[in-house]
Design a protein that fits this description.
Layout: E1 14-21, H1 23-35, H2 40-56, E2 60-67, E3 84-91, H3 98-113, H4 120-127, E4 141-146, E5 174-181, E6 184-192, H5 198-217, H6 231-238, H7 254-264, E7 269-272, E8 277-279, H8 280-296, E9 304-307, H9 313-324, E10 328-331, H10 338-348, E11 352-355, E12 370-373, H11 378-382, E13 398-404, E14 412-417, H12 418-432, H13 434-437, E15 440-443, H14 450-457, E16 465-468, H15 477-487, E17 491-494, H16 496-509, E18 518-522, H17 528-535, E19 543-548, E20 558-560, H18 564-567, E21 577-578, E22 582-587, E23 600-606, E24 612-613, H19 617-623, E25 624-626, E26 634-644, E27 650-655, E28 659-662, E29 665-668, H20 669-677, E30 682-691, E31 697-705, H21 710-722, E32 733-735
Parallel strand pairs: 4-5, 7-16, 9-10, 9-11, 11-12, 15-16, 15-17, 17-18, 18-19, 31-32
Antiparallel strand pairs: 1-6, 2-3, 5-6, 7-8, 13-14, 14-24, 19-20, 20-21, 22-23, 23-26, 25-26, 26-27, 28-29, 30-31
Length: about 725
């Protein structure tokens, strides 16, 4: 990984960084070389390869080195520069020991120098690798050891000493030069300044020193387990960049905060939807009446209540009513297939569903399920008390269970507690100043994801308003801009693909962007060029963040506030630093901390980590583990890949598995493939996420099927999938 993207055509612009290896390490390296029938050069080459393998995550490592090309006696006295480049290509497997790697490198070096007379240009001509003007052919990094004896120069009456020459060029991306003098080893790293900053090269050199010392101490240790972190780096990634503690205390839970706000500003607008506008008092009273009704049906702490409503004011009332009853809500998007809704209800064990007349037909009937039809039972509910029922809800009780896509073909329910919700509310307020901002948040998110709940809790409890966009507005840029203007919205959570479409519509209208105060972008990779397009159009006091998180860690875990300086030289916007009371670690496959710059997987700790997966103890134990870094803390294994930047911000690198996000929805590609394979004529299927030039992502299904012509098959497959998967999981394109 480099600090900056490669330019289309590389130049020789470079610089040099120097470092020294301790004498005791050098002595140990020589002993190791003798014990393993190798040379110091072989040990150094093996170490550089091990560091590169750890940094890149690759196993096939090719380095270049220099050969004097004077292996024939007749060339010994020939004057001229005969140096040739020799390629040393070795497979570095993470589970092999360093001693094993050294043996493999030894064989590679001996074999390569047995053919050192083959000119490098002839090798390139014969192999004909795909030429890339941004890279040198075959190798982009080299390693050299200068250990030939040098006689001191003595001139009468003159003191002679070496004079270092300025070096501002680099033939390769990286060249490690070692020079042995008087038992000491001086290192120089010649690096391309187009790709690397000096501090990154310094970090790389420091980690090489740590690994070499580790090789001396225990050469039989696996390469993946070799020490790499310096003491300073360990302190940074484990402590300094995770110093996010913020007192939270035993404050009110979310439904209590909403009630307190209603008492303070009863006549202020709390909810705006196509069907109705509600004040804080009206929202509070309607939620309380519904809560009393639910309590009479048996809802309370420890119970789950389904919520299946069309987009409108009833979504907010129903959600708060369930929480006021002491229960946890389970969102059941009425747009989901009936079979999926039935599975979610059965898996959650919810025996009550808050619904509407329009969605009753999509919910399973019988088996003791009680559907509270808020339309048909409006009069009955309207007679109940407007004060909240008494419930003994604590921070350890569940607030909601949200189902996400599952790789096995069945969705899994993420169980989030009230304490998690209180945490994210406090973190957002600390980060954005919600109390002062009082945002009017426009929600375009589905009821089935936690972002709808997020839009509610970062607006209504702070004296703002939740604006619920109708279904036809949520994906239509022109209608979205009109709604922002009509409702005076000041906050918006949006995915990059939809934001790009909105920006195009703004441009078409003359370039005036709505005067929003807070824009949270997330759920997809955000390209820097698209971020810059937004920054050029917003008002000066608008807070723009790129947010990262997951349902299992309560919405957001890290945020990044971009500006021109922080975006320079990047392709995608970083995901930033942990929110208050959140800890983020980047670990390797063995669960060890990786140094800044080295890719690894994100593990999230802190107050946002959810209880686990509802009814899935084995899966919970697999993905939620005790933290080895903070006593009493738990870590959630996200499966996302990232690396720490030198600034202390995180750069997102994609998934380590087959999970993707499209339009803010989390999708396990394996679940879509499993659904395809249930069709009797499908023999095999692979589903991938494809991104077009605008940044929009779509699912593409590659299918091996029998019978029927391709056009008819596509229509049939799409219909088949629609019967079991929500529309966002149905592939847009099919390739037979």
């Amino acid at each position: 990984p480099t600090d900056r993207p490669r330019p289309p055509v590389r130049s020789s612009a470079g610089a040099v960084y120097g470092f020294d290896l301790p004498a005791e390490t050098v002595a140990g390296l020589k002993d190791l070389a003798r014990e393993r029938n190798a040379t110091l050069f072989m040990v150094l080459t093996a170490a550089v390869k091990a560091v590169f393998a750890r940094w890149s995550g690759q196993e096939d490592i090719a380095l270049g080195t220099s050969s004097a090309a004077r292996g024939h006696r007749e060339l010994e006295q020939l004057v001229g520069f005969l140096v040739n480049t020799v390629v040393l290509r070795t497979r570095v497997e993470q589970d092999m020991t360093f001693a094993g790697l050294l043996g493999r490198v030894r064989d590679t070096v001996l074999d390569a120098f047995a053919h050192e007379d083959v000119p490098f240009d002839k090798l390139v001509e014969t192999l004909q690798p795909e030429r890339d003007p941004s890279r040198t052919a075959l190798v982009q990094a080299t390693v050299v050891l200068q250990n030939a004896p040098v006689d001191s120069l003595a001139l009468p009456g003159t003191t002679v000493s070496p004079y270092p020459l300025e070096r501002d060029a680099s033939l390769f991306d990286l060249t490690f030069e070692f020079e042995e003098r008087d038992g000491r080893l001086r290192g120089l790293v010649e690096y391309s300044t187009e790709l690397f900053d000096e501090r990154t090269v310094a970090r790389l050199a420091g980690q090489l020193g740590v690994l070499l010392a580790g090789a001396v101490a225990d050469p039989d240790r696996p390469v993946a387990a070799m020490p790499l972190l310096t003491d300073e780096e360990r302190r940074q990634v484990a402590v300094e960049w995770n110093a996010t503690e913020l007192p939270v205390g035993d404050g009110p839970l979310i439904h209590e905060r909403v009630a307190a706000q209603a008492a303070r500003t009863p006549d202020a607008v709390a909810v705006i939807a196509e069907d109705a506008t509600l004040t804080h008092r009206e929202l509070d009273e309607r939620a309380n009446r519904l809560a009393h009704h639910l309590v009479s049906l048996g809802a309370g702490p420890g119970s789950l209540v389904g919520l299946s409503l069309e987009r409108g004011s009833a979504m907010a009332v129903g959600l708060l009513g369930i929480l006021r009853a002491g229960a946890a809500y389970v969102p059941l998007d009425p747009g989901f297939p009936a079979d999926r809704l039935a599975y979610m209800l059965a898996d959650s064990g919810a025996r009550i569903v808050v619904g509407q007349s329009a969605v009753r037909d999509r919910l399973p009937a019988g088996d003791g399920l009680r559907i509270v039809d808020v339309d048909a039972e409006r009069d009955t509910i309207g007679q109940l008390p407007v004060t909240a029922p008494r419930t003994a809800v604590t921070a350890g009780d569940l607030a909601y269970v949200i189902y996400t896509s599952g790789s096995t073909g069945e969705p899994k329910g993420v169980a989030v507690e009230h304490g998690n919700v209180r945490h994210i509310l406090t973190a957002w307020d600390e980060r954005y100043g919600l109390e002062e901002m009082q945002p009017r948040f426009l929600s375009v998110s589905s009821l089935s994801v936690d972002l709808f709940f997020a839009d509610l809790i970062r607006s209504v409890p702070f004296g703002g308003a939740l604006i619920i966009a109708s279904k036809d507005v949520t994906t239509e840029p022109s209608a979205l801009l009109d709604l922002i203007a009509e409702t005076d919205a000041t906050g918006l959570e949006i995915v990059p693909s939809l934001l790009n479409a909105v920006l195009q519509e703004v441009e078409r209208r003359g370039g005036v962007f709505p005067p929003l105060r807070l824009i949270s972008v997330g759920s997809e990779g955000w390209r820097v060029e698209d971020c810059r397009a937004l920054l050029r159009r917003i008002r000066h006091d608008c807070v723009v963040v790129n947010a990262y998180g997951g349902t299992e860690a309560t919405v957001d875990s890290t945020v990044f506030a971009p500006d021109e300086e922080s975006l320079r030289g990047r392709v995608y916007v970083p995901i930033g630093r942990p929110l208050p009371n959140t800890r983020v670690y980047v670990l390797d496959a063995r669960g060890s901390l990786v140094p800044p710059g080295v890719p690894g997987e994100i593990w999230i700790g802190g107050a946002g980590v959810a209880r686990g997966y509802h009814g899935r103890a084995e899966l919970t134990a697999e993905r939620f583990v005790d933290s080895p870094f903070v006593p009493g803390d738990r870590l959630y294994h996200t499966g996302d890949r990232a690396r720490w930047l030198a600034s202390g911000d995180l750069e997102f690198l994609g998934r380590a598995d087959d999970q993707v996000k499209i339009r803010g929805f989390r999708i396990e590609l394996g679940e879509v493939e499993s659904a395809l394979l249930t069709h009797p004529d499908v023999r095999d299927a692979v589903v991938l996420a494809w991104q077009d030039d605008s940044g929009r992502r779509r699912l593409v299904a590659y299918v091996v099927a029998e019978g029927a012509d391709a056009g008819a098959r596509v229509s049939e497959l799409r219909s088949h999938l629609s019967g079991s998967l929500p529309d966002y999981m149905v592939p847009a394109l099919y390739v037979p």
